[in-house]
Structure formats: structure tokens, C-alpha cells
């Protein structure tokens, strides 16, 4: 099976949808309140469901141009939160001084899979898909 940009965009859309539904499940069903960094990551993730759906429907080969900036921002925020969570950054420089702590442990599957790690992996997965789509576009234009 040949990998096309539409397949890459569809995989990214599925990941964005899973991330969106998952974050809403954690907060609305399980009652885990999101911290400020989680809100910023949601701002980067939630629009991707619509953006990627439109890109797929319109057969937009250059959707990576407007998806990648959002996912890279989400990746940076998520990376920062993971560094805080795993105590690689001192807590005195964290933005979560008021409200919900950005290091609260709600889940820890298999002893290491946390909500911040799930978010980071989702953003990285979409980043990789968009970079591959970008490279495919550049290769096809040569």
C-alpha cells in the first residue's frame, strides 16, 4: 500500500480526535480538572480535528502548513509540562502557582504512562506525520 498525504492527514486526524475525546473524557467524565498547561495544549489540539477534516475533504496537499505550527506549539508546551512533571525543571519556575498543579498524578499506567506523556506522544506523532507530508510535497514538486 502506497502512503499518500491523505493517509497521513487521516492518521493525524484520528490522533487529534482521540486526543480531543480523551482529554474531554478525563476532565468531564472522570472529573480530572485540567491545569493551565493542559488548557494551552487543548487550544493547540482541538482545532486540528476540524482543520484536518477540511484538509482531507478538500484534498489539500499543503495542510501541513497550518497544522504544523499548532502541533509544534503543543509539543513545546507538552514537553515543558513533562519536564515539570518528572521534576527535571524546578517547581519554583512553573506557571502553575495558582489553581490546579501541573504535576498532579491522575493516572500512571504501567508505572510511567501519564496524561502529560500521552499528550506529548500525540503531538509528536502528528508532528512526524506533518513533516513527512511536507517532505512528500517537496519531493513531488521537484
From TrEMBL:
Entry GO CC: membrane
GO molecular function, one term: protein-disulfide reductase activity
Family: Belongs to the DsbB family. BdbC subfamily.
TM region(s), chain numbering: 7-27, 39-57, 66-89, 109-134
NCBIfam families reported for this sequence: PRK03113.1 (NF002849)
HAMAP family cross-referenced by the UniProt entry: BdbC
InterPro entries in the cross-refs: DiS_bond_form_DsbB/BdbC, Disulphide_bond_form_BdbC, DsbB-like_sf
One of the GO BP terms on file: protein folding
Major localisation: membrane
ATP-binding recorded as keyword: no
Sorted UniProt keywords: Chaperone, Disulfide bond, Electron transport, Membrane, Oxidoreductase, Redox-active center, Transmembrane, Transmembrane helix, Transport
Membrane topology: Multi-pass membrane protein
Protein's UniProt name: 2-oxoglutarate dehydrogenase
Subcellular location: Membrane
Pfam families (alphabetical): DsbB
Coiled-coil stretches: none
Amino acid at each position: 500500500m502506497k502512503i499518500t498525504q491523505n493517509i497521513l492527514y487521516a492518521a493525524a486526524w484520528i490522533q487529534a480526535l482521540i486526543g480531543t475525546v480523551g482529554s474531554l473524557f478525563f476532565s468531564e467524565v472522570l472529573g480530572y480538572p485540567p491545569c493551565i498547561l493542559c488548557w494551552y495544549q487543548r487550544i493547540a489540539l482541538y482545532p486540528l480535528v476540524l482543520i484536518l477534516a477540511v484538509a482531507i475533504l478538500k484534498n489539500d496537499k499543503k495542510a501541513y502548513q497550518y497544522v504544523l505550527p499548532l502541533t509544534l506549539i503543543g509539543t513545546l508546551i507538552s514537553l515543558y509540562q513533562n519536564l515539570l512533571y518528572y521534576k527535571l525543571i524546578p517547581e519554583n519556575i512553573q506557571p502553575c502557582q495558582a489553581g490546579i498543579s501541573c504535576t498532579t498524578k491522575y493516572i500512571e499506567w504501567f508505572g510511567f504512562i501519564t496524561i502529560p506523556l500521552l499528550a506529548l506522544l500525540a503531538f509528536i506523532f502528528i508532528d512526524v506525520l506533518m513533516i513527512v507530508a511536507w517532505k512528500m510535497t517537496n519531493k513531488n514538486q521537484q
